[in-house]
């Protein structure tokens, strides 16, 4: 019974503040440095080797540890951050979707639309219309659900 409890709590439980990261995860300074580096360079190409070097790890070790720390891969985390920025910029109707895509590090407008649709279940144009009609706060809440 104790073994089952330990397994369930270590696998599915939340870590208490001040506890060390789980074995195999990035140290807090490494995670912070990796995220900061990716955010600073999110508008262009980001090589995993550069991010891993910021953490003083090999690429394979970094990817495994990042996933252990965040629950997602570095690429998915970065796309999510780019989408957050795009959602913010799309509220400004004066910006075209191509401009928003370029500002957030997407290859082009269709890349932004594909990523947005896959994540939120609606194309960017529909989300913009919802923003105009219901207000940006309501659209943000809708997209997060």
Any descriptors?
145 residues; mainly alpha; 68% helix
Share of residues in strands: under 5%
Give the helix level as a range of percent: 55-70%
Separation, N- and C-terminal Cα atoms: 37 Å
C-alpha Rg (nearest Å): 18 Å
What is the string of SSEs from the N terminus onward?
Answer: HHHHHHHHH
What's the oligomerization state? Answer: single chain
Q: What low-confidence regions span 5 or more consecutive residues with pLDDT below 50?
A: none
Tally of helical runs: 9
Number of strands: 0
Describe the 3D structure.
The chain is an all-alpha fold and 145 residues long. 68% of the residues lie in helices and 0% in strands. It contains 9 helices and no strands. It has helices at residues 2-12, 28-40, 48-54, 59-70, 74-90, 97-103, 109-120, 124-134, 136-144. It is globular, with a radius of gyration of 18 Å. The relative contact order is 0.08. The model has no long low-confidence stretch (mean pLDDT 85).
List the helices and strands and how they pair.
Layout: H1 2-12, H2 28-40, H3 48-54, H4 59-70, H5 74-90, H6 97-103, H7 109-120, H8 124-134, H9 136-144
């Amino acid at each position: 019974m104790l073994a089952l409890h330990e397994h369930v709590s270590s696998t599915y439980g939340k870590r208490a503040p001040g506890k060390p990261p789980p074995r195999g995860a990035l140290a807090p300074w490494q995670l912070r440095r990796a995220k900061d580096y990716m955010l600073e360079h999110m508008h262009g190409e980001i090589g995993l080797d550069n991010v891993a070097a910021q953490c003083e790890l090999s690429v394979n070790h970094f990817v495994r540890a990042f996933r252990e720390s965040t629950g997602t891969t570095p690429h998915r985390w970065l796309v999510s951050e780019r989408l957050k920025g795009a959602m913010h910029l799309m509220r400004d109707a004066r910006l075209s979707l191509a401009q928003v895509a370029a500002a957030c590090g997407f290859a082009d407008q269709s890349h932004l639309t594909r990523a947005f649709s896959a994540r939120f279940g609606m194309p960017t144009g529909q989300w913009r219309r919802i923003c105009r009609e219901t207000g940006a706060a309501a659209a943000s809440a809708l997209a997060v659900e």
